[in-house]
Amino acid sequence: MIGVGKMKQYTNVLDKPLTKGKQEVSLSAFAFLFSELVQYNQTQVDNIGELERRLEDAGYAVGARVLELLCHRDKGNRRETRLLGILSFVHSTVWKVLFGKVADSLEKGTEHEDEYMISEKELLVNRFISIPKDMGTFNCGAFVAGIVRGVLDGAGFPAVVTAHFVPVDGQQRPRTTILIKFAEEVLHREARLG
Amino acid sequence: MAPVAPRSGDAIFANIERVNAELFTLTYGAIVRQLLTDLEEVEEVNKQLEQMGYNIGIRLIDEFLAKSNVSRCVDFRETADVIAKVGFKMFLGVTASVSNWDAEGTCCSIILEDNPLVDFVELPDTCQGLYYCNILSGVIRGALEMVSMKTEVTWIHDVLRGDDVFELQVKLLKQVPEEYPYKDDE
């Protein structure tokens, strides 16, 4: 056929131009893949804490790469140096790219200075997951917590990130909150920057 | 009720919920990385990926049949066509093509030019034996087994190993008629 060009094959993956990020796959393909990830990890661990840690580690790797990709593509290689800046980057840009919408809310913790919370009515990854009663407080959102931790760590804001279910009145399914607890050095630096 | 005509892959893909392909790509990369760390042997990882694909395939076929309204395929040729045109489009958003039919019509190649699983991926020297997309061969094998076809799916060409396209060979081993699970005299 005239005019149909074959994609140029690059020998080095780093030479390939970056995609625009508009390609999509079906939600069910992702849901199947995520369920296999969780099922595989269930066979490798003995307890829930380990399972959450493994999901978080998987998410950490995703987060580190997402940060690099988005910084280069969407932010023109500009770094965030302020706490609120990086939090709004995660809450808006990262969420929009990964899940198609900005996160439902971003709040500062009232009890501790170093805690922030990103809430979502229903995390995309949890959409087709139901937790059996004997797994207690286990939340597959640990994967998303890992993604956030990966982004923050890569940007220079070390933090401990966890995912929690928060029951909401009038709603059958609880809302998920990603709790971010920044390391001390981050707060010291933030205070120094004024 | 009049039978609903089968919908094309594009129409279905436009109507279902979609997510960013990059989340999918990066999650798959995380899975492969975890497997490599845990299992260390490349052959074991290949097998585990195929098994995971099989588990996905046996459930994916239900969704595929429900959403696509395809009627029962007359022969294996039609099956392969439906997988390539409707199946891949519906789940991965890419269209594949079918070629290299053998004389009896039981063996063909499905060719993928575009593959969302391998964006940003490069195989290091330590993993040269890895079939990175082996989950796809498991998915096809699992899905076809649920519709009574025992198949063998192998990789012929792999872009990560230096070829131009992804080529999967699907070979029909036998048609297994559905067995009635209960004995009549019980």
Automatic annotation (TrEMBL), chain A:
Tell me the SUPFAM superfamilies matching this sequence: Ligand-binding domain in the NO signalling and Golgi transport
One Pfam family from the record: TRAPP
Where in or outside the cell it occurs: the entry states: Endoplasmic reticulum; Golgi apparatus, cis-Golgi network
> Carries keyword Transport?
yes
Presence of keyword Transport: yes
List the keywords (alphabetical): Endoplasmic reticulum, ER-Golgi transport, Golgi apparatus, Transport
| Record's subunit section | Part of the multisubunit TRAPP (transport protein particle) complex.
Q: Which family does it belong to?
A: Belongs to the TRAPP small subunits family. BET3 subfamily.
Q: What is this protein called?
A: Trafficking protein particle complex subunit
Supply the source organism for this entry. Answer: Stylosanthes scabra
From TrEMBL, chain B:
- Its recorded name reads Trafficking protein particle complex subunit
Q: What does this protein do?
A: May play a role in vesicular transport from endoplasmic reticulum to Golgi.
Assembly and oligomerization? Homodimer.
Query: What Pfam family does this protein match (any one)?
Result: TRAPP
Annotated organism of origin: Stylosanthes scabra
Q: Could you confirm whether the keyword Cytoplasm appears in this record? A: no
Q: Would you identify the family this protein belongs to, as annotated?
A: Belongs to the TRAPP small subunits family. BET3 subfamily.
Q: Where in the cell is it found?
A: Endoplasmic reticulum; Golgi apparatus, cis-Golgi network
Record InterPro entries: Bet3, NO_sig/Golgi_transp_ligand-bd, TRAPP_component
Identify the keywords attached in UniProt to this record, alphabetized.
Endoplasmic reticulum, ER-Golgi transport, Golgi apparatus, Transport
